[in-house]
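COMPLEX REQUEST
Ligand: pyridoxal-5'-phosphate
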Amino acid sequence: MHHESGFRRLEQFDPEVFGALESELTREREFIDLIASENYASPAVLAAQGSILTNKYAEGYPDNRYYSGCEPVDLAESIAISRAKELFGSEHANVQPHAGAQANMAVYMTVLEPGDTLLAMDLRCGGHLTHGSPANFSGRLFRAVHYGVDPDTEVLDYDRIAEIAKAEKPRLIVAGASAYPRSLDFKAFREIADGVGALLMVDMAHFGGLVVGGVHPDPVPYADFVTGTTHKTLRGPRGGFVLSRAEHCHKLDATVFPGTQGGPLMHVIAAKAVCFKEAMQPEFKEYQKGIAANARALCEKMASEGFRMVSGGTDTHLFLVDLRPVGISGREAQDVLESVNINANMNEIPYDPTPPTVTSGIRIGTPAVTTRGMRPEHMDTLGGLISQALKNPADQKELRSVRALVKELVGAFPLYPEM
Ligand code: PLP
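STATUS: Structure written out below.
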């Protein structure tokens, strides 16, 4: 297989699209990526994802397809399924959801009827759109009710969640979030669910890799369903998956296909298998510990620079900075950081008084910088540079000097040298 020749053809035939790929490679190399949901997939993952497996239709499941010629892709999907089960210790795995949103949809459509009650984390406290936002199918099809964080401590109050569950009687409780810096207590969630006869789904889209690394508590022993993505802390291809208890396997599989999706993306499924194999290597655990150590180091440095950390810190790969003490909005911070070659996203802080297009906060995550090889001592330097930029958002001279130092820092951590 001659991958490089494909890129040569692309360059000749379609210089415009090739140009976008080249610009993206330059951007990834020259920017520090602190977007908590992003990472850099390995060349092996990229090779599988960019492969001829994209050509194959394979509606159905291994050894039970609606098309002929599926033996090779059956092999790829069977490997992905067995590795997912082994990696997470689950009874069943479905690796076909195209992304995290589809994984969540699959579970909802497996256990809920339209109008049924779903209890999940409030979007404004760190939950995800697919956790019942009115802008999303999950809020339109189901009766979504929400729990938030305690306004004073900014952490989950499990007694309060139990009260809401008793009052609302959900059929499904969802634990997991996009912007919650603390680890979750799955035993507490299980007890709350059992107390009201609800099923429990954990959405580990963000922290799946940390679970493998033993850095975050493991949801699998407690949850009826666990959904995840492969492209965040797991550092694989863009995609989703669902783990479940054996009793739900047939219904779940039927909900993914034919219930909510058509043909599976076999190239992505092969790349998920590669991702799971990478996650089984001993160094992957070290990588995950490195992510958490870097998040702690960067968070502590920024706190020492006078920024307020939501909930006072982090247990995970991400933290949320309340920018109000330095008098800058999340949007301004995102733009200023971009101007010095740092990408991080504006984010609401809990009970944020400003609209989601402005926000008072910024979300910072360390999976990508850890993949590049950065360590806590580099987080100290980086935290200083972020602080310098955010405290001088209108000083072009200062920003130019920060940008030069950021370029020097990333220059020491080459990305995709083989490309
Ligand atoms: N669930 C959570 C908690 C997420 O943070 C995300 C993505 O950010 C998703 C689900 C959806 O994943 P995707 O963007 O792959 O659809």
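REMARKS: The chain has two domains: 47-279, 283-411. The pocket of pyridoxal-5'-phosphate is lined by residues 37, 99-101, 104, 128, 130, 176-178, 203, 205-206, 229, 240 (CB under 6 Å).
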